[in-house]
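seq as requested:
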Amino acid sequence: MKGVAPPKNWAPGDIFHILGSIITSGYIWLGIACLLTFFVAYMLVLTWADYSYVQPASSFSYAWWPCWVIFLLGEAVPPLRWIGIFVICVGVFIVGHTHPRPTEKA
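struct tokens:
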């Protein structure tokens, strides 16, 4: 969206031009495809395990993204944030060692 200029005025012609730029943007369609892929995968995982198991496991992305921003963007991640990421990973580890469907009858 940073590549699309903001409207100088709110005239209908400017708004339609901006909407046209958004609709024809390959990055927007790539983002939509990624979201659809995520939701389909998420729904498939939910057919295999309970929500109380899947949701904490999806929180592992909190550990994944800081690694990406360090290597790709060169950002600095403060130590307090790393401690928070570690706590989240420990929680995911604990949840990961439980049964995926505790409500299932044995």
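The two ends are 51 Å apart (CA to CA).
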